[in-house]
Amino acid sequence: MTILLPGLLDTEAIRKDFPILDRVVHDGKKLVYLDNAATSQKPRQVLDVLNEHYEQHNANVHRGVHVLAEEATALYEGARDKIAAFINAPSRDEVIFTKNASESLNLVANMLAWADEPYRVDHETEIVITEMEHHSNIVPWQLLAQRSGAKLKWFGLTDDGRLDLSNIDEIITEKTKVVSFVLVSNILGTVNPVEAIVRRAQEVGALVVVDASQAAPHMPLDVQALQADFVAFTGHKMCGPDGIGVLWGRQELLEDLPPFLGGGEMIETVSMHSSTYAPAPHKFEAGTPPIAQAVGLGAAVDYLTSIGMENIARHEHAITEYAIRRLQEVPDLRIIGPTTAEDRGAAVSFTLGDIHPHDVGQVLDEQGIAVRVGHHCARPVCLRYGIPATTRASFYLYSTPGEVDALIEGLEHVRNFFG
Amino acid sequence: MKLDSMYQDVILDHYKHPHGRGLRDGDAEVHHVNPTCGDEITLRVRLSGQTVEDVSYEGQGCSISQASASVLNELLVGKDLDEARRIQETFLELMQSKGRIEPDDAMEEVLEDAIAFAGVSKYPARVKCALLSWMAWKDATAQALSEGKTA
Questions:
Q1: What is the residue extent of each domain of chain A?
Q2: Is the ipTM of this complex over 0.95?
Q3: Which parts of the sequence belong to the NIF system FeS cluster assembly NifU N-terminal domain (chain B) (predicted)?
Q4: Is the pTM of this model over 0.90?
Q5: Which residue in chain A has the smallest CA separation from B6?
Q6: pLDDT tens-digit profile of A312-352?
Q7: Contact A362/B12, CB-based, under 8 Å?
C-alpha cells in the first residue's frame, strides 16, 4: 500500500540515484536506512564526480603550473563557490574547508583562544552553550574554558525537548564573549529559535557560533539571515563524501582572528624567523586540503539544489509528522524530544519500555532496519531526561512512509521478542 | 533466525532474573563504562584469602551486558582466584574469537552458562557489552589484591 502525504518528493525517482538503497542485508531483507542523522547516503551524481576527479583531474591544488594542477585548483575553488552560493554567503572567501564540523568548531574555539582584544577569551569572560549540544560543540568549549580560565555556562532544556530561554539575560551577560549553539539537535530533533539568542548575544557584543550540521542537509541555510558570526557543518550528512566540512565566518572576523594550524598553503612569505599569512580562507587551510572531498561536496550541493532545499524540508516535515504519529501508537514508546513536527527536524529519538536501545537496534537490524542507538554524542541530553540511551530514527529526502511503517512493524517484533 | 544465536534463552533469563545484583561490601570498587553506547557498571569484589567471596554490581545497559554480569556472579562467587581467572580468560578468548571458536566440551565445562555468549562474539559491536563486567571484575580484583598487600 502506498501512503500519500502532502509535500512528499518523488522518492521513487530519487531513490534510483542512490545505489546503496537497493541493497539487501541479512539474507534477503530490504535495507531500510533510517540513520541519516549519522550520515547520509551518496547519490550516483556525487560518486561519479569523485571517480572522475581521481581518474581525470587529480593533482595538488594552488601549486604547479601543469594542466592537472590547474584543473584540480579550478574544481576545488569552484566547489567553494558552490557552497558559498548554497549558504548565501556574502563572499566566497568566507568559506573555509575543514575535515568535518568538529574541526570547524575546534577551529573557532582556537581562533578565540589565541585572539587579541576585543575577541580574547580569558578568566574574566564567559562562554555560553546549551545542554542539547553534540559533544563536538561542548568539548572544544570546555577545553577553551579550562585553558583560558573562562567560565562555561549553558542553557538548560524544557521537559518537551526545547531550549529553556527563560533566564536568557542571566545566561548571556556583558561578560559573554561567545555563544555557540546547535541549530537542529541531532538527538531531540528540535529546531532552535536562532533569532532570540542572536538578539541577546548582539546586545552584549558576544560572537555567535551556529552548529548547522543537522540543518544544512535538510533545510535552506542562509548565513546572512541567521546573523551569526560563524556557521559550521559537515559534508557527509548532506550527500557529500566524508572528510570534508565547512566553517563559514564573517570576513572581518576572519581577517582579524589569528590562524590556528600552521603549514603550507596558509602563508604569504616564510623566513626562518617569522611568517606572514595568506588572506582568508587560505589562512585557515594549512596543508593539502581534502580536494576530491571538496569537489564531491560541490557535487552534493548541486544535487540538493536541483531538488530544492525547500522541497526537501517539506518532504521531511511530512515524513516526520507521519513518523511521530505512528510511533505514538506503539505501546510503551516515549518520544524524547518534541512530540509535534513543528520547529522540528527529521531525527526522532525514543525509548521503548525497559528494553535497552542496544537490544532494540539489534532486533531492528535483523529485519534490515538501520537505526542509531546510544547517547548520540549528546550524553548530557540523556542525563537530563534520566535515560541511559535512546533509539533514533532519522529521515532524509529518499525516506518513504513505507519505511516508517517498516519501523513500526519492526518495533512490534522487538516488543514480542523481549516481552 | 540468527538473532536466536545471540539472544539465547539462558541470556534472556539472566537478563530478566539477574543473580547477585546490588552493591554489597567489597574490598575494591570500580566503575567501568562503554563510551560508545553508555553502558555502565559499578562492581565490587570481596576476597577472603584466595577465594572470591562476593561480586556485587549495579549498572545499566543492554540485555547482553546485564546478563553477562549476572552470569559472572553465578560463576565466580565461591571460586578460588586461580580458577576464577581461568574462567575469565576463557570467556575473553571466546568473546574475542569473532565467532570462529566452536565451543567444545572442555570449554563448556569451564564456562557453564557463559557458553551461551558464543553467539554474541559474531557481533563486534556487542562484544564490548558482554565483556564490560568481566573487565571490571579483573580490574577490581587487581585493586583488591594490591590494596591487601599494602594494608
A1: 11-30+308-418, 47-306
A2: no
A3: 6-129
A4: yes
A5: A362
A6: 999 999 999 999 999 999 999 999 999 999 999 999 999 99
A7: no
